[in-house]
Amino acid sequence: MLEVSDLRFAYPGRPAVLDGATMGLEAGERLAITGPNGAGKSTLLQILVGLLRPQGGRVWAFGAERRVESEFYEVRRRAGYVFQDPDDQLFCPTVAEDVAFGPLNLGKTPAEARAIVDRVLADLGLSPLRDRVTYKLSGGEKRLVSLATVLAMDPDVLLLDEPTNALDEPTTARLGDILLGLPQAMIVISHDPSFRARVATRGLSLRAGRLISPASLG
Length: 218
Ligand SMILES: Nc1ncnc2c1ncn2[C@@H]1O[C@H](COP(=O)(O)OP(=O)(O)OP(=O)(O)O)[C@@H](O)[C@H]1O
What we know:
Layout: E1 2-9, E2 18-25, E3 30-34, H1 41-48, E4 56-61, E5 64-65, H2 69-78, E6 79-82, H3 95-105, H4 110-123, H5 139-151, E7 157-161, H6 169-180, E8 185-189, H7 193-199, E9 202-207, E10 210-212
Parallel strand pairs: 3-8, 3-9, 6-7, 7-8
Antiparallel strand pairs: 1-2, 1-4, 4-5, 9-10
Residues 11, 14, 17, 35, 37-43 line the site of adenosine-5'-triphosphate.
C-alpha cells in the first residue's frame, strides 16, 4: 500500500535525518516504528503523504510512484494522518464540527456528515464529547477526537504519530482495542514497548537514517 526506497532527506543546513531508509506497508499490516527522539520518524510520515519532498529515493503509494505535489493529493485523501500534536489537527469550535469537517470537505451532505459523526463517535466511545468545546478537552480526549476526525474520512491506511502520548493506562488500552478492531493497514510511531507489542504485527526501528528490523538490531 505504501513503500519508500533509499530515501534521503535533510532539513536545510542540517545533516541528513534519513539516509537510505527503505520500508513497505502491506494491506492488513500494523507496522510499528520506533527509534530515538529526533531520528526522523515524523519526517518519514510527512514524506509518505507529500508534506515534505525527499532529496533522494522514491515513494510509492496505492500502486503508483508519487513524485510531484499533484500526485500526492490522492495519497492524502486515502492515508489518514493523526498528527503527533492534536492541536495541529483540531481547529473547529466543537467536536462534532471537527469530525464533520473532513466528510463535508469530501462532498458529503450535512445530513450524511451528521450520520458519520454520530457513527464514528459511537464506535470510539466518544458520543458524550459530541457537543463539547474542542479546545477545552483534556489532552487524552483531544487525541481520541483527532483519531475520530481521521476515521470520519474513511481512509485506506492510517498513519499515527505517537498516538499514546498523554493517554492514561485505561485510555491507552482502549486505543489499542480500537486499533486492533480497525480493518485498515497502519503505521504507528510509538515509544511505548508494551503498546507496540500489543498492537503491531511487525516492527521497525529508525536509526542513523535507516529502517532496520528487530532481527538486525543487534
Ligand atoms: N522544520 C524543521 N527544520 C529543521 N529541523 C527540523 C525540522 N523538523 C524537524 N527537524 C529536526 O529533524 C530531526 C528529525 O525530526 P523528527 O520530528 O522527524 O524526529 P522523530 O524521530 O519524529 O522525533 P521524536 O521521537 O522526538 O518525535 C530532529 O533533529 C528535528 O529537530
